[in-house]
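Running this now, will post back.
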Amino acid sequence: MKNSSVTDEFEGRVWLLGDDIDTDIIIPTEYLALPTIEAMKPYAFSPLRPELAGLIRPGDIIVAGRNFGCGSSREQAPEVIKALGIRCVIAASFARIFFRNSINNGLLLIENADLHDAVQEGDRIRVKAGEKIVAGGRQFPAASLPDNLLEILEAGGLVKAMRRRNGLED
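Update: finished.
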């Protein structure tokens, strides 16, 4: 069976979040002491929606407003989103350090300023990274990512990409 590629077209169920979702909402500070990302998963988004982590299924998509991932630079925020099975996060904009941490951890992010107001939670949308998002019969642009970032995403993160590039892949 072929591994899924970042550039493959995929479909997922939408979880709708607002503006300024900071890293302390994504994974609150008090849970950072837990020993693994797996142990942290049930507490993802708990200050905002305590039930959300338990409802998310692999392949789901978060659609958010502006400034997603603002706040501290904790790497556990994108790690826990990825561990929940979120296929990608589409937001009007991302905090810069969160964007970089997400790419480095293999989590696909797509900026689109118009999608948030065009979908409802539970909708199913189709995504072709670097090309388009299809929601409710409408098409929205999905900006392409540079080749070096695609390489990192395809490998599942920066460390894996560098291991692959240097012939150290397990």
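The domain at 9-165 is CATH 3.20.19.10 (Aconitase; domain 4). More later if anyone needs it.
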